[in-house]
Design brief:
It is built from two helices and no strands. Helix 1 runs antiparallel to helix 2. The protein is rod-shaped, with a radius of gyration of 19 Å. It is mainly alpha-helical and about 80 residues long.
Length: about 80
């Protein structure tokens, strides 16, 4: 018996990811501004945005992996 191919991604996932990651970036950017050891406003913006971008990338990977594992587990539970 041939196995059915399960589609684990949806088109709406990308919109949800953009909204979540945009919000996370804004939150981390505002949080990190007070931790930059500089008095120059441009350097504060640069380094807080750079750090927030890296953290947002990790957040995106973690949320994507969580979503895929959760959907795959639902598929496995449905087959039982």
């Amino acid at each position: 018996m041939a196995q059915q191919k399960v589609k684990l991604t949806r088109k709406s996932d990308f919109l949800v990811d953009m909204v979540l990651c945009g919000g996370f970036f804004a939150f981390m950017y505002s949080l990190l501004q007070s931790h930059v050891p500089s008095n120059d406003p441009q350097m504060i913006m640069l380094w807080s945005a750079g750090a927030a971008a890296c953290m947002t990338g990790v957040f995106w990977l973690a949320s994507w992996m969580f979503r895929m594992v959760m959907r795959y587990q639902r598929v496995l539970d449905a087959r039982k």
